[in-house]
Specification:
Layout: E1 35-39, H1 48-59, H2 76-83, H3 87-95, H4 110-118, E2 123-129, H5 138-150, E3 158-160, E4 171-174, E5 189-193, E6 208-210, H6 217-223
Parallel strand pairs: 1-2, 1-4, 2-3, 4-5, 5-6
């Protein structure tokens, strides 16, 4: 079930139900190539932080918790571990549980924006997400979540990988500030999607943010497009 994407060069399908997802006929000679966009899932499409906090408080009503406005740092378990040594494992148990990922709510505007993005001309969109190592439920539920909110045709557009640096693309929209891996110089530009845990970070130019799906994501895509005749 897990797609091994080491040194992966993604190839969009050009026929069938995906032909309407910005992937009709291939580019003609001399035209620009399709822009390839990777979109993270947890914290960008699915409300991981809100879903976690709701389930943590329900399962451990007598334990201290961290309000969303007080979240700092990408790793939830590390911040909870600083509240108490046993809270790190309790936090991890939440997202390792059955139905955690499938029951996450979409972030406001996420589904509509990505559907619009996928229907743009000369644009290939993939949901690029990292499954947790305890894989009993997570990979299946990520596929089921995409099918539920985007439809079965979008299942072809999922990339599951623990290392996003080896996936070839022009843009990666992701809420994790520090994305590292085997490839020291990934092909994509990382656009930081604003989340409760990273909103306090000051980015140095030329790094860019997408504040929310109400932000002008189309302008970010257009800034990466090559003019006709310069496609590769």
């Amino acid at each position: 079930m897990i797609l091994l994407s080491s040194f992966l060069h993604l190839r969009p399908r050009r026929c069938g139900p995906l032909a309407g997802l910005g992937r009709g006929a291939g580019p003609a000679a001399g035209s620009r190539r399709a822009l390839r966009v990777l979109v993270d899932m947890d914290g960008v499409l699915a409300d991981f932080e809100g879903g976690f906090l709701k389930k943590f408080r329900a399962r451990y009503p007598d334990k201290p918790y961290i309000a969303l406005e007080d979240r700092r740092g990408f790793w939830v378990s590390e911040q909870y571990g600083r509240l108490g040594p046993e809270l790190s494992e309790k936090a991890i148990s939440i997202w390792e549980s059955k139905n955690f990922f499938i029951e996450l709510e979409p972030l406001p505007g996420a589904v509509e924006a990505v559907k619009q993005m996928a229907n743009l001309a000369d644009t290939d969109v993939f949901i690029c997400t990292s499954p947790i190592k305890k894989y009993r439920y997570c990979p299946y539920e990520k596929y089921a979540w995409v099918e539920k909110h985007f439809g079965p045709e979008f299942l072809e557009q999922i990339v599951l990988t623990r290392d996003k640096t080896v996936v070839s693309a022009d843009l990666l929209i992701d809420d994790r500030p520090d994305i590292t891996g085997a490839e020291l110089n990934p092909s994509w530009e990382h656009v930081l999607f604003t989340a409760c845990h990273n909103k306090h970070l000051q980015l140095k130019p030329p790094s860019r943010r997408l504040q929310s799906w109400n932000d002008d994501w189309k302008a970010i895509l257009d800034s990466k497009r090559l003019p006709p005749g310069r496609g590769t």
